[in-house]
UniProtKB/TrEMBL annotation:
Cellular component, GO annotation: endomembrane system
One MF annotation (Gene Ontology) recorded for this entry: mannan endo-1,6-alpha-mannosidase activity
Organism lineage string: Eukaryota, Fungi, Dikarya, Ascomycota, Pezizomycotina
Entry's family note: Belongs to the glycosyl hydrolase 76 family.
Reactions that this protein is recorded to catalyse: Random hydrolysis of (1->6)-alpha-D-mannosidic linkages in unbranched (1->6)-mannans
Domain of life of the organism encoding this protein: Eukaryota
Keywords from the UniProt entry: Glycoprotein, Glycosidase, Hydrolase, Membrane, Signal, Transmembrane, Transmembrane helix
Record-level GO BP terms: carbohydrate catabolic process; fungal-type cell wall biogenesis
InterPro entries: 6-hairpin_glycosidase_sf (IPR008928), Glyco_hydro_76 (IPR005198), Mannan-1_6-alpha_mannosidase (IPR014480)
Designated name of the protein: Mannan endo-1,6-alpha-mannosidase
Organism from which the protein derives: Polyplosphaeria fusca
Amino acid sequence: MKLFSSAGLLAFLYVIGCNVLPAAAIDLDPTQPGALYSIRNAAKTVAKDMVAMYANQDAGGTHVISGIPGLLTYPPYYWWEAGAMFGSLIEYWYYTNDSTYNDMVRDGILFQVGEKGNLMPANQSKDEGNDDQLFWAFAVMSAAELGFENPTDPKQPGWLAIAQSVMNQLISRWDTTQCSGGLKWQIYQWLDGYNYKNTAANGGMFQLGARLAMYTGNATYAEWATKAFDWLVQSPLLTKDWQVYDGTNSLAGCKDADQLQWTYNYGIMLGGAAYMYNYTNGSSLWADRLSGFLNHTPVFFPKAQNNVMVEVACEITQKCDVDQWSFKAYLSRWLAISAQLAPFTAPQIMPMLQHSATAAAKQCSGGDSGTQCGSRWFYEQYDGNGGVGQQMSALNVISANMIAHVQPPFNAKNGGSSQGNPAAGTGDDNPPTTVVFEPMGTGDKAGAAILTILVLGTWMGGAWWMVS
C-alpha cells in the first residue's frame, strides 16, 4: 500500500474538505466588454487551488514540496498528469503574466527530466508509456515556444533539447513489425497495453513533430509528423470523415478500433493540424484536415447538456477515472491554439470556449474558498467531485479565453531562446541517420510567422472589441 507524503496527505484532505463545504461560484462571462480582467482573476483563483493540491505555500510565498518534486505524490495520480499540470501552469503564466509558480514549475520539470535529460526518470522506469512521456514533452515544448525562463544550470538541457530528445526516442521506437508502422502505447513489453497502438501516442508524435518543425524550421520534423499522421489515416483510428477513435490491437493486425471518442484525442489532432497549417503557410491540405477534426468536436458539446463541453464517454454517468477527468483541459488548450494559429477557425471555436468557461466557473464553488472545481460543467453548481484533473480542466478552458491577447508562439528565428540539441536522446554526438537535418531557406524561416501576424491581426482586431 502506498503511503501519503505529508504534502500529499494535506492535498488529499484539502480535496475532501472542499467536497463538503459549499461556497459561492465564480461569476464569469467572457463575452462581456471588459471581460479580460475577470477572466484573468478567475484563472488566478483556480490556479491557486490547483497548486494547493501539489505544494504548500509558506509565509514568504515560497512553494514547499514535501514529497518528490514534479510528482503528485498521493494516489491515484500518475506521472503523466503532473506533466500536464506543469504544462497548464506554463500556459497560465503566459496568459496572465503571473509568475508566482514559475520557480516551482521549473524545478519540478527539471527534477523529472531524468539523469540523461530525456524525460525517462528512474522513478518511472517500471510504468512509463509513450503518451506519458509525450505529455511532459508538450510541457517543455510550451516552455520553449512561450519564452518560459530557461534552466539556469548550464548542465541542464534546454527545453527545446528535451523535446528533441523525446522526438528522437519516438523515432527509434517506430514499429514496422506490426501494422506497417506506428507507435505502441507502452514503451516496455511487460506493461499491459504493449500491443495497443493508440491515438494518444501516434497523434502525440504527430503534434510534437509539427511543433518542432514550426519552432526550428527543420523540414525533417515535419516529415516525421506527416509520417505519423499518414499512419493514423491508413489505420482504423481515423475515419474518412476525420472521426478520431482511441486505439487498435496490433496483435490482431490493427483491423478494428476501440471507437470511444475522447476530448484529448481530438485536442491532440486539432493542435497538430493547426501547427502544420501554420508551418505550411496556410496550405489548403492542412486547412481541410483541421476543419475536418473541428467539425466533429460538437459531439463533445451536446445540446442535451446545454452545449457545454462534456466528456461524453464517461462524464454523464459519472464514471470517468482520474485520468479522464483531466481530458477536457487538453481539448480546451488546443482549441485555443488552433484559433490562434489558424484564425479562420476562431469564429467556430471561441463561442464554444466562452460558453464552457462560463459553465466551468459556476462549478468552482466547492470548499470555503469557493474555488474547488467540479467535474460536470452542465450542472449549475458544484457537483461534489473535485480533484487535480477537474481543476486543470477548469483552468484551461477559462485561460483559453485570453488567446486573442497573447502573441503567437515563438520560434528560433523570431525570439525563441531555448537551447536545442538535434542529437539529444540518441546517445551520439551527431544526429541519427534516420533524421537528416536540412538548412532552412528564407521562406522556411519567416513564412509561418508572417502568415500568423497577417491573419491573426485581422482576427484580433475583431475580437478585441468583444472582450475589452
